[in-house]
Amino acid sequence: MKKVNILFMGTPEIAVAMLSRLLEDKYRIVGVVTQPDKKIGRKQLLTMPPVKELALAHDIPVYQPGSIKEEYEQLMELDIDVLITCAYGQFIPKALLEYPKFGSFNVHTSLLPKLRGGAPIHRAIMTGESFSGVSIQRMVAKMDAGAVCAQQKVEITQEDTMGTLYDKLAQVGADLLAETLPKIINNEACFVEQREEEATFAYNITKEEELVDFECDVQTVYNHIRALIPQPCAYAYVHQKKLKFHKARMIRDNQPHVCGQIEGLIDQGIAIGAMNGYVLIDELQMEGKAKTDAKSFYNGIGKNLIGYIINSEQ
Q1: Is position 112 annotated in a ligand binding site?
Q2: Going by DSSP bridges, is the β-strand pair 234-238/241-252 parallel, antiparallel, or unpaired?
Q3: 260-302: pLDDT as tens digits
Q4: Averaged pLDDT, 94-99
Q5: Where are the alpha helices (DSSP H) in the chain?
Q6: Does the annotation place 83 within a ligand binding site?
Q7: Beta bridge partners of 280
Q8: Could you give all domains of the chain from N- to C-terminal order, each with its CATH number?
Q9: Are strands 148-155 and 131-138 parallel, antiparallel or unpaired?
Q10: Is 12 annotated as a binding residue?
Q11: Could you tell me if 102 and 183 are in contact, meaning their C-beta atoms sit under 8 angstroms apart?
Q12: Are 207 and 233 in contact (CB under 8 A)?
């Protein structure tokens, strides 16, 4: 193992990619800090975060404070050279950030100073960005505002969803971390302060934002839907029930369409009108039902919904 003690802080799958690379590169992980286990799904099964699963598989001590601001003292009893975070999910106290010998660093999935905050991948797609990326930054007591020492740009294609971009950025982030960490440890990294006037923010997606408004240009509607695939998943209302959209495409034709109107089964997708085109929903789910493909939906209740205008409010 490399003689560098790392405290790793992260929660979802993207953080697993970072921790896995650190383990592959033989760094000594003295502890993993992650969010508390939480109840998930209809059955409300208590589920551990993905990072915790990996840590336990490697016999790494796991810490799960409900509030890191109030429960960080025991972490400062550890021998920590570097603190690495990725999508941890809580603000880390300044005292802990300043404790490690070489400092504290965050792997953030945007090209900082753009899209600081908790949902940069969702927001990049939702706002129609052509590129996303990964930044490695020194952590300070302000959200994603520290100096940046490495960045890697990643193209966002028209076919990308939040899920596919997430996977791309996980791989790029792990590679960039592996390349950058030795420079940090050897004091060879060059840090550039962010330009505050260029900062934008990617706040977490609200429940209200999961609802799709079809009274927009088709590109905007499509971006909204694919930005929330596979989760939290966009929806609209059909007869007061949620209709979720799990897979979608876009057709721009500059023909007149009734916004929100179900036009039928076109090219094996349920076509819904928007300004300047329509979206094709390939997988969808009516509230209380299982997810299904478009043709099965059409052969069920879908054919009776042709001409129906779905609602952006209940």
Answers
A1: yes
A2: antiparallel
A3: 999 999 999 999 999 999 999 999 999 999 999 999 999 999 9
A4: 96
A5: 13-24, 50-57, 94-97, 120-126, 162-185, 218-227, 294-299
A6: no
A7: 249, 271
A8: 2-198 (3.40.50.170), 207-305 (3.10.25.10)
A9: antiparallel
A10: no
A11: no
A12: no
